[in-house]
Fold:
Amino acid sequence: MVNVKDYGTFETAWCPGCGNFPLLEEVKKGLVDAAIEPHQVVFVSGIGQAAKAPHYLNANVFNGLHGRSLPVATGIKLANPDLHVIAESGDGCNYGEGGNHFLAALRRNIDLTLLVHNNQVYGLTKGQASPTSDEGFETKAQPHGVHLLPFNPVLVAVAMHIGFVARSFTCAKGHLAGLLKEAVEHPGLSLIDVLQPCVSFNKVNNFGWYKKRCYELPGDYDPTKWESAMIKANEWGDKIPIGVIYKGGRKSFSDYLSDSVKKGLVGKHIDEKTFQKIIDSYK
Structure:
């Protein structure tokens, strides 16, 4: 039986007080609650402080290029459908550098989970505004404030009718763990946008700022209703809803694949002579 200790404990490179610490613990708990053992899951990340999170897990990990976690995660899922595939990185990595891959993943609705550490700033590269930074947010790179409309990934995801859309906050203990369990078990693409304060470079959207605004969706809220989900997804400012915002019934990408492709490449016989000819052709 899997337990939290199976996922290990490692020394991290995060700043003291970083929101990544409770987020990491919630991820471990969510995987355990879902009865997923380390060998059954693979994390794919890009570049950034958030992208380091899978380094601190005893699990399968692929650490790739900035913004490129989703295409790699897609390839892994198609190659081995039995794996639980989780792409994990930050708001800049996924919504900035990886913005086009994010849109492609929404269109595909492939059966994997996208876990985004959203602190509304670039933490690794010392505090530039990110795609989710609020208007007027001042940084060293934007001393006169941000004059772009912030990107709303939750709203876009709901608009595209993907499988599962949720938001969490690192101060809500036990909240993310429950959402992650639901996400990995739900068919289609699952997005969990996690409000994860950066204590070093975002002095505005800190723990206190989120605590005053975040509220859990009530028990009578129905996430299967697309129209009301769009309204909740667009709610930001004085009040920020957290929880399962939308559950879609759209077919996942794998539903359109032939049975032979659905089984993936793992375990298939390789014609060694043909394979060797291909390798030799590159010499």
User: Anything to note?
Assistant: Residues 4-280 form a domain with the Rossmann fold fold (CATH 3.40.50.970).
